[in-house]
Amino acid sequence: MNRSRTTRVAAIAAVSTLALGLAACTPGGDNGDNDGDVTITWWHNATSDPLQGLWEDVAAEFEEANPGVTVEVTGYQNEDLQRTLIPNALQSGDAPDVFMVWPGGEVRAQAEAGHLKDLTEVAADTIEEMGAAVSPWQLDGKQYAIPYAFGAAGIWYNTELFDKAGIEGTPETLSELADAVTALKAIDVAPIAVGAGDLWPAGHWWYQFAVSSCPTDVLETAIPEFDFSDPCWVEAGEQLEEFIATDPFNEGFLATPGQTGADSSNGLIANGQAAMEFMGPWNSGTIGALTEDGEVPEWLGWFPFPTVDGAGGDAGSIMGGGDGFGVHVDAPDEAVDLLKYIMSEDVQRRFAETGAGVPTHPGVADALTDPNLIASAAALGEASYVQLWIDSALGPAFGNPLNQAIVNIFAGSGTPQDVVAALEQTAAAQ
Amino acid sequence: MTATHAAPPRVTAPSPAGPAPATPRRRPAADRRKWLEIALFAGPALVVFVGFVIVPVALAAVYSLYNWNGLGPLERFIGLDNYVRAFSDPLFIKAIGNNATIVIASILVQGPIAIAVALLLNRRMRGRTVIRALIFVPYVLAEVIAGLSWKLLLSPRGGVNAVLEAIGLGDLARPWLADPDIALWVMFGILSWKYLGFAILLMLAGLQGVPEELHEAAAIDGANWWQTQWRITLPLLGPTIRIWIFLSMIGSLQLFDMVWVTTKGGPIGATNTMAVYMIQYGQGQYGYGSAIAVILFVISLVVAVIYQRFAMRRDLAGALTSGVR
């Protein structure tokens, strides 16, 4: 009798505790304006120093300069952040105030859904200062995010291995690149590392050939309109096929990841097993993270992608891209102030000094110390046209079908026409 | 999903001829208390189950009818287009085929090995405990850690190739996970390594339920060890084997972690599974991803129901009906 009663009392107690526990889990009010205290959440993609430390310093300084403002700053792994965390946060209505925004089709998708604050007026001065680099983050003439870094893709290489293989200078045409490949094979290193296991690093090769083959006006109109009828898109695949036929890539490249672990294409460069990698301006940082001492190796060099003999595109066109921050549409005004501070000349200068990328602020170019980034920035400055990474430019739905079709060419099981077909099919489903 | 929710035992026994025996009349208060208790104990679980299982499944079914990038409002209704698209994508068809291959290969390869090892380990022998523990170690390892280890071991310059070269079998060295012709079978090898321990443990547990007396009786009748296993142990192990097949099938159909960590479905889709395809192609296309999720759900459900209906009918007979045989 008594036992059943105590059991029941215990059960009720347990259930009420559970209910209270659940109640405690419901989200509290954020950005509460009571007492003038404001909390800003800021999500970025730096998960290691020096950039992670810099952003933490920036947040602390902003808090100090703005009493009553708390900045909660967190770095997440790049793809997780962009593909999972941010879309979920936007959809759930509990979005961060300042967050990483990719250019092109990516910013378009978020802006069209009404998640991004129009910065055209509220950050007009900052946008003006940054110059032409801001345009990939615009939609219908409105600015929805501001880039803090923008750089050109190019070939990162091991100068010591080049010396050992007797390669003089750096390849300027595709046939010179092929000669370098032959010379590097002779000293028994993988000439070029590519992380086709992650798809997009292989995708970059096709994008580059498309930039070489397609005239500027085709690139400018075809991508936003999803019109891939120009023969240059097939030509790009044919050039890629021809190049792959010279067998320039590391063994097992189909399963090689891009940036994680000693076995990734970054890792092969870092430990001297491969001589070249075609990659964006962040590469010295990601290679540096994989060396034994965690430093960017001194032998690391950079040169622009060689010109493609007989290709129909403009020789001055290059491929590049960058990282920007946007502000959520419901964020407090202080979030815009934080963004302005991140883009300020002082912070941009310190960003340049970390060597983590090429800053967008034109006034800080002299603060770049890494010769490779200086070369990358110079190439960007000289370019007649800058094409954004094509998967970013097209938008989130295109990445996988496009890159998979490209990797199929790498594997010898796909054709140049298949890539265009994948583009057209994905476009049709939009 | 397993049919463990037993129906309440029937209390009204079939009455013999004659006036119905006076059933004990329940007081209404007691009835109310019983329902209160049921609500109290089952309520929270039911709320959680509905909120985190039923609603998401239903929502996925709804999303799958829309062209939705996950950012804007749900407004572009396209009917069954996402399903048509899925079934006309050769990569997805290949993923279904890969899942089916893993299901069948698991049953045909892992099952017999597990039974054989369990039978051996069920005999009294020196070091039995140590061997049992060793066999179970891979299953205890986190899937991500196991996957990363194998990825490094199987890479072109990894441990496996180094060992092959060291023992003079350098010709066999290859980029194991990068060769589309063999990648699926290498993946199956890793999965077998990981899950054999669980199968063996299950079989060993099943063997504990085989009465020793039957073996003694068989021994008296002059049966040798082989005959005893074949005629007595294996038939009595049947229920365990069938349950293991069921778990193995469902696990193989939903295979994700190991593939994601080691190959992400590559090279060129050679190791792709439905779940991996769903993640890769659902990015930025949540309607399409939801359609894949629904297809995966339906396939798993159909396989589970058919298997339970036919293969496990006898095993479940006691669980689903009253205790009377």
From TrEMBL, chain B:
UniProt keywords, alphabetically: Cell membrane, Membrane, Transmembrane, Transmembrane helix, Transport
Membrane topology: Multi-pass membrane protein
PROSITE patterns associated with the record: ABC_TM1
Transmembrane regions listed in the UniProt entry: 35-66, 100-121, 133-153, 182-205, 241-261, 286-307
UniProt-annotated location(s): Cell membrane
Single Gene Ontology BP annotation: transmembrane transport
Major site of localization recorded for this protein: membrane
Residue intervals of the ABC transmembrane type-1 domain: 96-307
UniProt entry tagged with the keyword Cell membrane: yes
Chain residue ranges for the region called Disordered: 1-26
Domain of life: Bacteria
A Pfam family of this chain: BPD_transp_1
Keyword Cytoplasm: no
InterPro entries: ABC_transporter_permease, MetI-like, MetI-like_sf
Gene3D superfamilies listed in its UniProt record: MetI-like (1.10.3720.10)
Gene Ontology cellular-component terms listed: plasma membrane
Entry similarity comment: Belongs to the binding-protein-dependent transport system permease family.
Name of this protein: Sugar ABC transporter permease
Organism field: Homoserinimonas hongtaonis
